[in-house]
Every structure is written in structure tokens, then in C-alpha cells.
Design brief:
Structural class: alpha+beta
CATH topology: Glutaredoxin
Helix content: 40-55%
Distance between the termini: 33 Å
Number of strands: 4
Shape: globular
Largest sheet: 2 strands, parallel
Number of domains: 1
Order of helices and strands: HEHEHEEH
Strand order of the largest sheet: 1-2
Oligomer: single chain
CATH class: Alpha Beta
Strand content: 5-15%
CATH superfamily: Glutaredoxin
Number of helices: 4
CATH architecture: 3-Layer(aba) Sandwich
Length: 107
């Protein structure tokens, strides 16, 4: 998913859009965090990413995540509009719709 996510960050860079990641892959330990940072740099991950482990309660618990990855589409008002849209064309369609609404409300 990272190549497509990277393209979304580039495509919407001048519009009201943010991609945020949550990791559950050992990043609460020094070795896991170092590995994540190395892989993120290699794969061109430029967006914020938070650690799930080591927090209490865990982000995944608060959001009732049952599997990875779980995708939430949250609009500019903080409302979850979609969940787990994975098809790239459909993903871009719902993002365009949500971004247009944010831009319209900003006028």
C-alpha cells in the first residue's frame, strides 16, 4: 500500500488532506523503531506515524482495530466517513469527495 499512499500524499499536497499511520510492529522497542525508521526512509514514508504499542490504552483498542491495516477516512469535521476502502480508484473517489467538501466549507 505504501507506493499508493505515497502517491496520494504527493497528489493532495496542496489540498486539505493528511495521511496518518499507526504502527504495531515492535516500534516501542529500540530495535523495532530503528527498523521502522530504516524501512520508512527506504520506502519514502513522509507522513506522521504513531506507535500503537507501549501506549495505554493502545490506539488500536480505542479504535476497535481487528486487523492490520485498517483504514479510516475522517472528514474535516472529524467524522468517520468510510472504513477499509482499499480499491485504489474507489479510495481516490471518496478522498476527492471529502477534500472537495472541506474546500467548499473553507470558502
Amino acid at each position: 500500500m505504501i507506493p499508493h499512499e505515497r502517491s496520494l500524499v504527493d497528489k493532495y499536497k496542496n489540498r486539505p488532506f493528511a495521511l496518518i499511520g499507526v504502527n504495531s510492529d515492535g516500534t516501542h522497542q529500540a530495535k523495532g523503531l530503528a527498523n521502522y525508521r530504516k524501512q520508512a526512509e527506504k520506502m519514502g514514508v513522509t507522513w506522521r506515524s504513531f506507535q500503537d504499542e507501549g501506549n495505554s490504552p493502545r490506539i488500536s483498542e480505542d479504535w476497535h482495530v481487528q486487523g492490520w491495516p485498517t483504514l479510516y477516512y475522517i472528514d474535516h469535521k472529524g467524522i468517520i466517513r468510510h472504513k477499509n476502502v482499499r480499491d485504489e480508484a474507489e479510495m481516490e473517489r471518496v478522498l476527492e469527495e471529502m477534500i472537495a467538501a472541506a474546500e467548499q466549507d473553507a470558502k
